[in-house]
Design goal:
Length: 178
């Protein structure tokens, strides 16, 4: 389990059009928004990534870099990029399931073809959305066991505005006895 204010696991994947994404090499003013998505087979992911693509510039203006990552292979990631048409969004691929587990993501097994007729991979990770501070500690995290009911990027943008203005700390950091 990831703990706010503690260092997140290493994360490095290739991207389609923006070179290698290596979290430790990121240098945004405030942090990095990492959106883990299920893959090409998921129609909800396509809609979600289109929405993230619309917010990349606004997040950058707040001091946050953005990336979307899946365990899909390069060809499937390329198909997703074509589907969502969000050229400013870095699209990473090849996430290992070991790395997905380190990030606390749930792993699912294939149930065959999805509602849009695309075969699911044998194993793949479920969605997660994280904000990692520039010091590589967890600021915010949300993990889903299903493709449904994900955080809205417009709400995240508003929350980040509040956090910046109030210098609001990451919460959920207590690990002592309860």
């Amino acid at each position: 389990m990831l703990i706010p204010r503690q260092t997140v696991p290493a994360l490095s994947v290739p991207t389609l059009a923006h070179g290698e994404f290596d979290l430790s090499g990121e240098s945004p003013e405030r942090g990095t928004i990492i959106c883990f998505y299920r893959g090409l087979h998921c129609p909800i992911c396509a809609t979600y990534l289109k929405e993230l693509g619309k917010h990349v510039e606004a997040f950058a203006e707040k001091g946050y870099a953005s990336v979307a990552i899946s365990s899909d292979e390069q060809d499937r990631a390329r198909q997703m990029a074509e589907k969502i048409s969000a050229p400013d969004l870095r699209l990473g691929y090849g996430l290992t399931l070991t790395s997905a587990r380190e990030w606390g993501l749930s792993i699912s097994t294939s149930v065959g073809k999805t509602s849009i007729g695309i075969e699911e991979p044998a194993l793949f990770s479920e969605p997660g959305l994280f904000v990692v501070s520039k010091d590589l500690t967890l600021y915010y995290g949300s993990v889903q066991t299903m493709p449904f009911v994900r955080p809205h990027f417009s709400e995240l943008a508003g929350a980040l505005d509040f956090a910046i203005q109030k210098n609001y700390p990451a919460r959920g950091e207590y690990t002592g006895t309860v």
